[in-house]
């Protein structure tokens, strides 16, 4: 099974602007040393700063990125039915990156103007359920009673819409510099990016359902201990973003050599080329 030397997680943000307190980056080495936060170059991370950090890495690092790597495709045969858009994920990333001129790889304009009719932004749009479509991995999660988000829902603090389309711009920037699973096969060497959902890591760390966020040192150490990690170095601030990134980095280290996670039974070639998959969903 493929072995990595380091494990990282970026807790992501689709917020407008160029400085994002909602972004946190954590990393840990193989072994059991606690994950640690990577300080941003200018006190607060930008999305471009995460791209630059990833491009600078030259070892076998596995990084989890907390956004949807593509919209649903299989369910309706198009990412945006009725619009002339690409039909593969890599081409769609290029399309999003080309059409959006938002600062710092942002993509709010994609939802708010370029393809407005596909996204639910409030009651004026009508019935919310008319906008709700999911990828195959999300449908699998829903079938087992777990929560699934959709990139077409742009309402609420937990929505992933803007973050995901901003993330697709990041993936386009990284497309030739690292493997992006499962759109690319898992290489024998080099860095690899996977889509993650931090709640999966929290559940594996023993965090009870309904309490997926940790905001204190004791809770963080208990979660890390459940993942085979030593206690963390104290943080200045215990934010959701920081603890999510730390826990997920430790979780990736614990599970990365599980072959089942790299070959989910429901993942086929068409899904891998169009929608991708959330690492950890089987």
The shape is globular
- Uncertain runs: none
Largest sheet: 6 strands, mixed
**Sequence of secondary-structure elements:** EEEHEHHHHEEHHHHH
Classify the beta-strand content into a percent band. Answer: 5-15%
Structural class: alpha/beta
| Radius of gyration from CA coordinates | 18 Å
Average pLDDT confidence is: 93
Task: Please tally the helical runs, counting DSSP H or I stretches of 4 or more residues.
Answer: 10
Largest beta sheet: strand ordering: 3-2-1-4-6-5
Helix content: 25-40%
Distance between the termini: 18 Å
Short description:
With 282 residues, the chain is an alpha/beta fold. The protein has helices at 47-56, 89-99, 108-114, 136-143, 161-174, 198-204, 217-226, 240-255, 259-262, 269-274; strands spanning 6-11, 24-29, 36-37, 61-65, 179-180, 192-195.
Q: Which features does this protein show?
A:
6 strands; 282 residues; 33% helix; alpha/beta; 6-stranded mixed beta sheet; 10 helices
Description:
This protein is an alpha/beta fold and 282 residues long. The chain has one domain (1-282). 33% of the residues lie in helices and 9% in strands. It has ten helices and six strands; from the N terminus they run E-E-E-H-E-H-H-H-H-E-E-H-H-H-H-H. The chain has helices at 47-56, 89-99, 108-114, 136-143, 161-174, 198-204, 217-226, 240-255, 259-262, 269-274; strands at 6-11, 24-29, 36-37, 61-65, 179-180, 192-195. It has a six-stranded mixed β-sheet with strand order 3-2-1-4-6-5. A hairpin with a 6-residue loop joins strand 2 and strand 3. It is globular and about 50 Å long. The protein starts with 5 loop residues before the first strand and ends in an 8-residue tail after the last helix. The mean pLDDT is 93. This is DUF429 domain-containing protein. It comes from Sphingorhabdus wooponensis.
């Amino acid at each position: 099974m493929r072995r990595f030397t380091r494990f990282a997680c970026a807790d992501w943000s689709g917020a407008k602007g160029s400085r994002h307190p909602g972004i946190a980056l954590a990393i840990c080495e193989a072994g059991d040393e606690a994950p640690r936060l990577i300080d941003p170059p200018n006190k607060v991370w930008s999305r471009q700063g995460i791209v630059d950090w990833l491009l600078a890495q030259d070892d076998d690092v596995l990084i989890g990125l907390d956004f949807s790597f593509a919209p649903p495709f299989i369910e309706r045969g198009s990412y945006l039915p009725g619009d002339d858009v690409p039909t593969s994920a890599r081409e769609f990333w290029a399309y999003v990156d080309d059409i959006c001129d938002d600062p710092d790889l942002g993509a709010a304009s994609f939802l708010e103007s370029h393809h407005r009719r596909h996204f639910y932004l409030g009651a004026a749009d009508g019935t919310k359920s008319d906008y709700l479509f999911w990828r195959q991995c999300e449908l699998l999660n829903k079938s087992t009673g777990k929560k699934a988000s959709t990139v077409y829902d742009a309402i609420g603090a937990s929505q992933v819409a803007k973050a995901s389309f901003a993330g697709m711009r990041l993936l386009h920037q990284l497309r030739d510099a690292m493997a992006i699973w499962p759109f690319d096969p898992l290489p024998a060497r080099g860095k690899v990016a996977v889509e993650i959902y931090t709640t999966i890591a929290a559940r594996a760390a023993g965090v009870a359902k309904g309490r997926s966020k940790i905001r204190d040192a004791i809770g963080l150490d208990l979660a890390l201990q459940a993942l085979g990690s030593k206690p963390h170095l104290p943080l200045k601030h215990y934010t959701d973003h920081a603890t999510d990134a730390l826990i997920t980095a430790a979780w990736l280290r614990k599970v990365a050599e599980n072959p089942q996670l790299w070959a989910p039974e429901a993942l086929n070639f068409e899904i891998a080329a169009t929608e991708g998959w959330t690492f950890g969903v089987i």
